[in-house]
Input
Amino acid sequence: MRVLFLLLFLASAAAAKTSASLYLPYRYPGSLGYFKVNPKSPYKVVVSGAGRSWVFKGVEGSSKVYFVVPYGLKGRFKLSLYRGRREVFSRILRVSPKRFRVSRIWVKTRPLKGALLRRVIRENRLLRRIFSQVTPKKFRSSKLHPPLPRLVVSTPFGAKRIINRKKRSIHWGTDFRAKRGTPVYAALSGRVVLARKLYFTGNTVVIDHGLGIHTLYAHLSRITVKEGQFVKRGQVVGRVGSTGRSTGPHLHFGFYVDDVKADPMLVLKEQL
Ligand SMILES: [Zn+2]
Output
């Protein structure tokens, strides 16, 4: 009896050693979460549901692995944590239902072709490559800095845009209304990995914060940082404008983890 008790005790001690703690305050599509892990081991998070999986790579030496509840998941999904190739945590969770705004617009569209189409494909590949980069942690704060002095949402994350009756795109960031020239702040410390004019997003800044986290600032009238430069949380990276495909001055703010889009308004409320 005593031996059995001791064995049970040892087994539970071993389980406690490998157990990682989960932080996931919201379960809406686009919610950010993380596991607190032992920084000495390599970890990854796998989210699966709706017939596909999303992999979030951890960085050795970091005590957190971040992940996102991907947009497009409905109902139940599986959340797993792997240490090396061993699954050390697994749980079935349910996505909280959320309605996304649908905006229907009728416009004369010009099909993208030739050199312009090639440019758009090239720029999209560049962004995908940047957002997939997982580098060591570059921030300290546990809260995002608001990207503008005042946050007034004009188009939320996940809004569906239907152009000429055809489902064309999903809005992968949050649009904030602001006057032209309003300062735009870095949401966290990090390295500027892109600071240039792109076809759709106009003057664009992307910051790599490490651990797979990137933020994007689009349609700027002016960019005030350079590629390769390190910026501090709250530092001005540019000014609000209407460059690229835009109908008026606003900031499009995006938040990505391992190239999976998160809802900036949820992330602004969460702990990192
Ligand atoms: Zn936008």
